Each structure stands twice: as structure tokens, then as C-alpha cells.
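Final report, closing paragraph on structural work. Over the funding period we assembled a curated collection of sequence-structure pairs, and we close with a single example.
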Amino acid sequence: MAVKAIPDGYHSVTPFINVKGVAKLIDFLKAALGAEEVMRMPGPDGTVMHAEVSIGNSRLMLGEPIPVLSTCTSATWTRCTNGRPARAPSQSVRRPISSGATGWRQ
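Its predicted structure, as stored:
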């Protein structure tokens, strides 16, 4: 059986974000953007080594920083830019803002 170059549920580009506190970020993405958790792999210390969420028809991969692998050296994730098309932009920001997001521009 042939293996698909891009598995179902993925697109040409699938971002992977290393961020301290991935579990909290997943909770936020669920509340703010209606993300659905696809999978989660815990590390030996209980942190999230790898997780995937779906937001609409797109997949996002996440994991805790791993200093030994130099995936991230920052103690916190300080900035994120989210471009998301919407039919009614003013309404599409209400849910993230009510979930704690800040800095929204329209």
C-alpha cells in the first residue's frame, strides 16, 4: 500500500510550536478558537512532549521546549500572530478575547 506524502488532516505546511506550558495553551486554543485535541504524548516528567490540535481544517503540532535539542530557550512564549479569515471579523475576535487573548487588531 502506498504511503500518502501528506496524511489526511494535514496540509502542505503544518506548524510545530515549542512553548512552555503546552497544556495551558491547548486549553486556551480550545476555549478561544474551538480547537479539538487530536492527540497528546506525555513525557516522563508529565509535560507534553508532543500534541496535535485541529482548528477548523488545519492541524497544529505543539510540544514543550527541549533544551537539550535546542528547540527553544525562552522561558515563556511571548508573542503569537494568528491570521484567520473570517466572514465577520468583529465577531470572530469575541471568543478569543473572552478567553483571555489580548492585542487583537482588526
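Residues 13-73 form a domain with the Signal recognition particle alu RNA binding heterodimer, srp9/1 fold (CATH 3.30.720.120). The radius of gyration is 15 Å. We thank the funder for supporting this effort.
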